[in-house]
Design goal:
The chain is of the alpha/beta class. The protein is 41% helix and 12% strand. Helix 6 runs antiparallel to helix 7, helix 8 crosses helix 9 and helix 9 packs across helix 10. The radius of gyration is 22 Å and the shape is globular.
């Protein structure tokens, strides 16, 4: 009688955060906050987050008036499925000349091939100095982008986006963009429902597209002016229906021209672009969480036809609806969480 296959032992995805002198406490805390929340259906943590230093366990200076005690040395990097390098203001030769210190190079030598790498803000300088960004796209805080490009000409620096996912290497802009990046990795590993739950518990927006501009130079809306909030709420409740620009403008009793200008001032994109983004998000949720056919998902998300859905999903994510669903269904059905697979 054939034996039933044994379930593989559960192992959370191990995230190791590299704490460097001069680190920013806020950005160091982002991975712990985001990856420390997700649980599977049995309540088991999907990630294990560990902080390490380039030196033996001990104090690491921050850019604030306190130091932190790090309990792990660089050997922890050898156990990582994902390594995250947050920002630091004391990178020394890494920032000044684009070269790793002997200490940092020795620490990074512990990282296993195939480990997923990510940086927040100026942490990208460490990845660039290590050579892993040569010929690849990357981003950082907009104020550092020009310097990064000058110091590392082989890196394809994009200063305009919140984060870049290049498969096994991900980079983000500064400060809050690190939250977007970590939520994106949770979404990529386990789907929108898990990421949205983390975002809700963290009281942050569940998703800001990586291609969104870092900084939109526009005046703060006059508090006396009417907002477009009502129109957006109205549209979100009717994504499955045809929605005309004039119908949205009518919700705010504005002309189409005034509404379009006000909408762009408040949201940063046109009403049409925003509507497409919301429909893509709706389609992603349905593909991940229901058994609806692609035609049904297309109708419920407001794209009308499966062909239209395919075109928009391909443009936004680079995958077809079927491939997108297969990715998350495979992760949900696996005995070991999807996040334990790197890359």
């Amino acid at each position: 009688m054939p034996r039933e296959p044994r379930e593989r032992p559960f192992r959370p995805h191990r995230v190791v955060v590299l704490a460097l002198d001069g680190l920013l406490p806020f950005e160091l805390g982002i991975p712990h906050r985001i990856f420390g929340r997700p649980r599977d259906a049995r309540g088991r943590p999907l990630y294990e987050v560990v902080t390490c230093s380039v030196r033996p366990p001990g104090p690491v200076e921050t850019d604030a008036d306190f130091a932190i005690h790090v309990a792990h040395g660089p050997q922890a990097l050898a156990t990582a499925d994902t390594v995250i390098v947050p920002a630091s203001y004391e990178l020394g030769p890494v920032y000044e000349q684009g070269v790793l210190t002997d200490e940092l190079a020795a620490a990074l030598a512990h990282v296993r091939p195939g480990t997923r790498l990510a940086s927040i803000c100026t942490g990208v300088y460490v990845l660039a100095a290590a050579g892993v960004l040569d010929g690849r796209p990357a981003t950082t805080h907009w104020a550092d982008a020009e310097r990064l490009q000058r110091l590392f000409p082989r890196v394809r620096v994009d200063p305009h986006v919140l984060f870049i996912d290049d498969g096994d290497v991900l980079t983000s802009a500064g400060v809050a963009a690190g939250i977007d990046l970590c939520l994106h990795m949770v979404r990529r590993d386990h789907g929108a429902a898990v990421a949205n739950d983390v975002a809700r518990r963290t009281v942050v927006p569940p998703h800001r597209d990586g291609g969104q501009a870092q900084y939109i130079q526009r005046p703060v809306p006059d508090p006396q002016q009417a907002s477009t909030t009502t129109a957006r709420a109205w549209a979100l409740g009717r994504l499955h229906e045809p929605i005309q620009l004039r119908d949205m403008a009518a919700q705010e009793s504005m002309s189409v021209r005034t509404f379009t200008r006000r909408f762009r001032e408040e949201v940063g994109v046109s009403p049409g672009q925003w509507l497409t983004q919301q429909r893509v998000e709706r389609a992603r949720h349905l593909l991940e969480s229901t058994d609806l056919t692609v035609d049904q998902v297309a109708r419920d998300a407001g794209f009308g036809t499966a062909q239209s859905l395919r075109q928009h999903l391909q443009a936004a994510l680079g995958v077809t609806p079927t491939a997108y669903r297969r990715t998350f269904r495979a992760g949900a059905d696996a005995a070991t969480p999807a996040a334990t697979r790197t890359g």
